[in-house]
Amino acid sequence: MKPYLPLFLAALFVASPAPSHAQAASSQSLDGIVAIVDEDVILRSELDRAVANITAQYASQPGQLPPREILEKQVLERLVMVRLQVARAADSGIRISDAELQQAMNSVANQNRMTLDQLRARLASEGLSFDEFRENLRDEVTIQRLRQRYIQAKVQVSEAEIDQLIATQQIGGPEMRLANLQINLPEGATPDEIARGREKIEQIKGLIERGETTFNAAAIRYSQAQNALDGGELGWRSYDSIPPLFANVLRAMKPGQITDPVRGPSGFQIVQLEEVREASAQKVTQYRASDIMIRTSDLVSAEVARQKIQALRDRIAGGEDFAKVAKEASDDTLTRNAGGDMGWFQADQWGTAIGAQVQQLADGGLSPIFQSDVGFHLIKRTGMREQDVTEDNRRNKAREIIGNRKADEEFERFLRQMRAEAYFESRLGA
């Protein structure tokens, strides 16, 4: 599984769909309960399937997995967090339609360069249920929607904050691939608990540095972060997208090296620098064009709209000014008052139909009539340029960095609070 599922799905795939209360009640005599979460239960069969999925992902590297009892605790905690988030989303009125779910499934298949049928066959070949995959993906999309809704209400980024970040940090530049390993501390940890946490992460770091284990294997075995079962992988980050305390240390490190333990809001963590790469180029091709659009509707059939725009094209081909015709007749309210001028844009910024036409035209060229999902169009290309978007990208990157930091902090706080407020009873080993 792991090589062809995207990281977010690999992380979630351990979660099994929640049984209804009726299903749980009818099966409890045959299927033990391993945990109670609020008014719901997690069954032994769910945990076993989840552990089996993780084991399948690491079938070629079984030595990276911790002992069964530790793995069960890690997977159970993830099942609990998924269950709590999905329940909170349901209480908030979040629903994922079948159409949205189908789109997400197609996206997963496309990312892995497969058709949906090929993905189904691949899952079946590894003994994994497509129906379970589908419901787990619904949970993942639900959780993403919950996170989006929560941070939209909590996170705002001002232009002043962007200016300040740009003034104090170099935005852009090299990127690095990171992994982390975290040992959690309870809220209001005592000095003894803090000392034990520090000692534990120091011991783990020592194991890695002596070559007794790899960082990723140690993360799977010991880390208490949400990404533990992914080997602690954090993906590619720019230096300016992580907390300055880590960034300053990482700048002086070489791939393979590990930071000293750092205490954060959730506990102690160490970070490994895995790879470094230069940032991609920041130039894009932009086009300028003018547009006339005749909208189709219940009152204007496709044939009537086509005839109307053909008449407009004939007028322009006969010498009338494009801008004058656009102001008189175009249904595109965004461009009509400007004589159809769409400004500078990247090829597909106005949709794939317009993008395909504008790329084929020469400057000054008039397109044939073509159809989009809103009506029929006629465009005239007026320019093309290679544009340096470094400054725009810097500001967008700064906005993203600040937003992501705030979002991560807010949502992590939200998850900790939700977990602390939930009723949880583990029956593992009972």
UniProtKB/TrEMBL annotation:
InterPro entries: OMP_Chaperone_SurA (IPR050280), PPIase_dom_sf (IPR046357), PPIase_PpiC (IPR000297), PPIase_PpiC_CS (IPR023058), PPIase_SurA (IPR023034), SurA_N (IPR015391), Trigger_fact/SurA_dom_sf (IPR027304). One of its GO terms (molecular function) is peptide binding. Residues 173-275, 284-383 form the PpiC domain. Its EC number is 5.2.1.8. Its main location: periplasm. Residues 1-24 form the signal peptide. Keywords: Chaperone, Isomerase, Periplasm, Repeat, Rotamase, Signal. The keyword Ribosomal protein does not apply. It catalyses: [protein]-peptidylproline (omega=180) = [protein]-peptidylproline (omega=0). It is an enzyme of class 5 (isomerase). Coiled coil: none annotated. Pfam families: Rotamase (PF00639), SurA_N (PF09312). GO terms for cellular component: outer membrane-bounded periplasmic space. GO terms for biological process: Gram-negative-bacterium-type cell outer membrane assembly; protein folding; protein stabilization. SUPFAM superfamilies: FKBP-like, Triger factor/SurA peptide-binding domain-like. It is found in: Periplasm. Chaperone involved in the correct folding and assembly of outer membrane proteins. Recognizes specific patterns of aromatic residues and the orientation of their side chains, which are found more frequently in integral outer membrane proteins. May act in both early periplasmic and late outer membrane-associated steps of protein maturation. PANTHER family: CHAPERONE SURA. The PPIase activity resides only in the second parvulin domain. The N-terminal region and the C-terminal tail are necessary and sufficient for the chaperone activity of SurA. The PPIase activity is dispensable for SurA to function as a chaperone. The N-terminal region and the C-terminal tail are also required for porin recognition. This is Chaperone SurA. It comes from Arenimonas oryziterrae DSM 21050 = YC6267.
